[in-house]
Amino acid sequence: MGNLIVGGAVSAGVCSLSNQVSWLSVHGPMQGSLSANLLENKCNSNSWTDIALKEAAALVGFCPAPAAYLSLKTQATVDATTKAKYLQAQAVRQKYATKTMCGVDAFGLNTVYSPIMYAVGQMANFPTSENDGMVDFPSCSVGLSNFGTDCLGTGNYKASINHADATFRNGDGWWGSDRKPVKWLQCAL
Q1: Long-range contacts of 45-49 (CB under 8 A, 24+ apart)
Q2: Report field, pTM of the whole predicted structure over 0.85
Q3: Is the previous residue joined to 64 through a cis bond, with omega within 30 degrees of 0?
């Protein structure tokens, strides 16, 4: 979400970025996210199959769906004004982002968040299996190239982690260079 906020602020002239700024773009939903659409649908559903999920989401403040999350609905499902803002934010990120990390495994590192991220990724019906449970790879990587799976690489990082793992709270995976978000951050700085 922060990537869209910065991109939107720069494109609207609210602020600017100098060449001294390092922008590390982490799991940004630059084309929105089907997870936001899913949240809206489940919170508005009156189906008996969704009642338990809707009530659980309400207990933690996700139903009714907060406006901040609804603002992240996928680019293909929003009005022309919002779509234009997505495109402007994408252009800013493409111009200024120093490095980018995108997750492509909804289960990610084996943590308490893994089953939740995996379940959300499945329910959101992303068009690709490459998603972090909240954001799919095409949305995170839009306008960028040079992605690799080596955390020590010089390009952008395509990591086998989920959205929660991208908060760096779970450390690095024990095996595979594509499961090392903390190491990527250390090398990117």
Answers
A1: none
A2: yes
A3: yes
Report the chain's mean pLDDT, rounded to a whole number. Answer: 95
From the list 90, 113, 97, the residue with the least C-alpha distance to 25 is: 97
Total domains in the chain come to 1
Spell out the residues 6+ positions from residue 148 whose beta carbon is closer than 8 angstroms to its own.
155, 156, 157, 158
- Chain-centre distance for alpha carbon 121: 11
CA separation, residue 161 to residues 65, 79, 91, 164 (Å): 26, 31, 25, 8
Angstrom distance (rounded) from CA 35 to CA 163: 12
Residue spans of beta strands (DSSP E) within 15-166: 23-26, 97-103, 147-148, 156-159
Residue 59's domain comprises 2-188
CA distance 104 to 135: 9
Rounded CA-CA distance 144/164 in Å is: 22
Backbone angles phi, psi at 27, to 5 degrees: 50, 40
DSSP, res 24: E
Q: In this structure, what token pair is assigned to residue 125?
A: 């019906």
Per-residue pLDDT reduced to its tens digit, 55-91: 988 998 999 999 999 999 999 999 999 999 999 999 9
